[in-house]
Specification:
The complex is a heterodimer of chains A (about 140) and B (about 180). Chain A is globular, with a radius of gyration of 16 Å. Chain A has one domain (about 1-10, about 25-140). Chain A is mostly helical and about 140 residues long. Helix content of chain A is about 70%, strand content about 0%. Chain B is of the alpha/beta class and about 180 residues long. Chain B is about 40% helix and about 20% strand. Chain B is built from 7 helices and 7 strands; from the N terminus they run βαββαβαβααβααβ. Chain B has a 5-stranded parallel beta sheet, sandwiched between helices. A two-stranded antiparallel ribbon of chain B has the order 1-2. The longest helix of chain B is centred in the last third of the chain and has 17 residues, at about 145-160. The termini of chain B are far apart. The mean pLDDT of chain B is about 85. The chains are: A mainly alpha (about 140), B alpha/beta (about 180). The interface of A and B includes residues 45, 111, 115 and 119 of A.
């Protein structure tokens, strides 16, 4: 734990986080919404399988994303994601977070089509869009 | 006081079926859709559901341990009756696999009732009901519990005035 904290405080160019006084960003919010909507349809195990696949796909590019097939609960998966994202530069975390969402959505779309995916994720997609617009305004 | 209650009939939207049924399915009935694997039970249920569901008559489709829900949606949307606009506001899909894996009928029933109370459907589908039977035979719960489950489900759905469909893989010998 101590080692992790030290790593996070090292200014570096390898994507690791620097110390800062910025307000914490809730990058898990869209996932909580999406899981809330999809668990009803596919169950927790179904969501974990889909999420795990997207995570594994993206971990090829972002090696710091931890992939553990033993994680079988949404809470466990999202906690691990939160730790992983907190361990890298906020900008990198934002990009990886968006890519994970895109990968998940794309993989879901390839199964049930874009229209139905959009319909099922309507609320989560809308809130994510609002988040992006907010981020643009703050730049 | 001689007026008898009129039994409403629901047109299924399936060509020819309403003629065979004498005009349609009786409202608030408890219907078993049985057949061999791949015979089209889920598709028939979907055709009926999409024909009947609307803003004033919502439907819940419970999936148990049969075909994975995403795969089912992948195939069902190929049919012309599959109206995507109805998914969400008028038709809700609910997966009960996790509840059934816990192995208690009561837990499954309680979850179903929570969903029914929350969404207020007039139509309820359970696919595949056979999964519940198989769980009983695997020894998680006894057959008497299964009978109690069916009885309780039927009773509760009748109270909610929900026309109910149980879908299951049955051979002629089972029936």
């Amino acid at each position: 734990m101590e080692r992790d904290d030290k790593e996070r405080q090292q200014p570096s160019d390898d994507g690791k986080a620097r110390p800062g006084g910025e307000a914490p960003v809730d990058r898990l919010r869209p996932w909580r919404r999406i899981s809330g909507q999809l668990v009803v349809l596919i169950g927790e195990s179904g969501f974990c399988a889909s999420f795990g696949r997207a995570l594994r796909t993206l971990a090829a590019r972002y090696e710091w994303l931890s992939v553990d097939p033993a994680r079988r609960s949404i809470d466990g998966l999202l906690s691990a994601l939160e730790r992983d994202l907190a361990g890298v530069e906020p900008a990198v975390a934002d990009i990886a977070g968006r890519e994970l969402l895109d990968t998940f959505t794309r993989q879901l779309s390839s199964l049930i089509g874009e229209a139905l995916t959009a319909r099922l994720l309507e609320q989560a997609t809308a809130s994510e869009q609002i988040g992006k617009e907010d981020a643009q305004e703050h730049k | 006081m001689t007026d008898k209650v009129r039994l409403g009939l629901l047109a299924t939207g399936v060509p020819g079926l309403d003629v065979l049924l004498g005009g349609g399915l009786t409202e608030y009935s408890f219907t078993l859709i049985a057949g061999a694997p791949g015979s089209g039970k889920t598709t028939l249920a979907h055709q009926i559901m999409f024909a009947l569901a609307g803003p004033e008559r919502r439907a819940i489709f419970f999936t148990v341990l049969g075909e994975p829900p995403l795969k089912m949606l992948r195939y069902q949307q190929q049919f012309s009756f599959f109206d995507m606009a109805k998914v969400g506001p008028e038709i809700r899909y609910v997966n009960l696999a996790d509840d059934l894996r816990a192995g208690h009928f009561q837990g499954v029933l309680d979850r179903m009732m929570r969903e029914v109370e929350d969404f207020g459907p007039s139509l309820v589908f359970v696919d595949s009901f056979r999964s519940v039977v198989q769980t009983a035979r695997a020894g998680n719960e006894g057959l008497s519990d299964l009978q109690q489950f069916v009885q309780e489900l039927g009773s509760r759905m009748a109270t909610w005035q929900a026309t109910t469909f149980l879908i299951g893989e049955y051979s002629q010998a089972d029936v």
